[in-house]
Q: What sequence folds into this?
């Protein structure tokens, strides 16, 4: 038995219209062409589905039995096609965005909400990960895209700079440096400094040394999570320096932030995308959303092609 969707549509149309002329008009075919399709269907199923007279066409007992299932199949296929069209137009689907601790707790949810207003049918999942794990999640397919500070990435991942995030002092409101509108690095490093991963510290040291060899950063403590650093600062164990997007987190701990000069240090925040893997329409539209949001060069390419 070889029954086609074309035959099923013709069967349902004829059953509902009650005449070859009306059904053919609905299907935009001739009555003779429709008659051939119905004959082929009846031949395929091995039974007559319609009783035909010169005045009307009625369903046979077998046709009445067959109609509910045939109608459901045609309707389900129509819904499937509509869903695929919506998916292609980025109106439906799932988008998984991995973010490093600071940005998955601040910027990424904000971007997800703004994007969701434009594409409410897309379910956006935020994946929080350590900074050096974001690229790995994009590479192995756990995430469609990633947002994190610039780092060396695997060959199968490309990164595009979205913006630069200035590093700021974070300290308790009663700290001596909190009374200043702007502080200098030479003053910051005189206080116990709470740092994140060794990679983060090495980046700060390199930036400071590039400005002046006299600026030597020796952290009093290293922690993995920014929330731990903020808690230690809150309870008077030292100060820290974090990108400006940590302001909201610092405020939640009752801390204040101050710009740091001499030098001004910025972190490059990047979009991470797979180099080869096929991208969903939602991932493509999110990349275009980011291009508008951060005034990137307009691109119609896949994120991995646009990231070079």
A:
């Amino acid at each position: 038995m070889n029954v086609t969707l074309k035959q099923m549509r013709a069967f349902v149309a004829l059953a509902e219209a009650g005449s070859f002329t009306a059904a053919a008009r609905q299907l935009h075919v001739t009555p003779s062409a429709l008659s051939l399709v119905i004959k082929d269907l009846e031949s395929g199923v091995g039974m007559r589905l319609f009783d035909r007279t010169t005045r009307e066409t009625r369903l046979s007992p077998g046709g009445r039995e067959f109609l509910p299932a045939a109608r459901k199949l045609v309707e389900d296929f129509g819904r499937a096609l509509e869903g695929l069209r919506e998916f292609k137009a980025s109106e439906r689907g799932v988008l998984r965005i991995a973010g490093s601790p600071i940005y998955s707790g601040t910027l990424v949810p904000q971007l997800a909400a703004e994007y969701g207003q434009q594409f409410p049918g897309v379910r956006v999942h935020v994946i929080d990960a350590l900074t050096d794990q974001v690229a790995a999640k994009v590479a192995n397919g756990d995430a469609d895209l990633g947002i994190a500070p610039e780092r060396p990435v695997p060959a199968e991942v490309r990164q595009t700079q979205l913006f630069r995030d200035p590093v700021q002092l974070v300290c308790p409101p009663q700290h001596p440096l909190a009374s200043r509108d702007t502080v200098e690095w030479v003053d910051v490093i005189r206080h116990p400094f709470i740092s994140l991963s060794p990679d983060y510290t090495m980046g700060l040291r390199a930036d400071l040394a590039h400005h002046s060899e006299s600026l030597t950063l020796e952290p009093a403590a290293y922690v993995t999570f920014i929330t731990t650093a903020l808690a230690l600062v809150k309870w008077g164990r030292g100060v820290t320096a974090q990108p400006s997007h940590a302001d909201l987190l610092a405020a939640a701990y009752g801390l204040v932030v101050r710009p740091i000069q001499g030098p001004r240090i910025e972190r490059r925040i990047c979009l991470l995308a797979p180099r080869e893997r096929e991208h969903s329409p939602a991932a493509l539209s999110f990349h275009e959303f980011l291009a508008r949001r951060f005034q990137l060069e307009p691109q119609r390419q896949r994120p991995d092609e646009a990231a070079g």
